[in-house]
Amino acid sequence: MEDLYTSLVLICGVSEDLFWHADLSFLLSVAENKAAYGRWLDCERQYLMERERR
Questions:
Q1: pLDDT number for residue 23
Q2: Euclidean distance between CA atoms 41 and 35, whole angstroms
Q3: Helix count and strand count (H, E) for the chain
Q4: Does position 3 have pLDDT exceeding 90, yes or no?
Q5: CA distances from 22 to 11, 14, 17, 54 (A)
Q6: Which residue, 41, 9, 10, is CA-closest to 18?
Q7: Distances (CA, A) of 21 to 15, 16, 26, 32, 34
Q8: What is each CA distance from 3 to 7, 10, 44, 53, in whole angstroms?
Q9: Is 54 helix (H, G, I), strand (E, B) or coil?
Q10: Cα 16–20–24 angle (5° rounding)?
Q11: What angle do CA 13, 16, 9 make, to 5 degrees?
């Protein structure tokens, strides 16, 4: 449980209240969507940095 708490609350930014009261499948879905958004955002930032170099 400690590893899951660390991963979801401290790393992914899921609220502590949500962690303790939501269904596990919902929490995992939130974490997955947050990770996907983070990857997309990183790609957009990289694209903009490369675009500025040109």
A1: 94
A2: 10
A3: 3, 0
A4: no
A5: 18, 11, 8, 47
A6: 9
A7: 10, 9, 10, 18, 19
A8: 6, 10, 30, 41
A9: coil
A10: 110
A11: 35
**Tens digits of per-residue pLDDT, 6-46?**
989 998 888 999 999 999 999 989 888 988 999 999 999 99
Structure-block tokens of residue 17: 């209240």
List C-alpha distances in Å: 27 to 4, 23, 42, 53: 10, 6, 22, 39
**24 with 16: CB under 8 angstroms?**
no
**What tokens appear for 33 in the block?**
């969507």
**Other CB atoms within 10 Å distance of the CB of residue 14:** 19
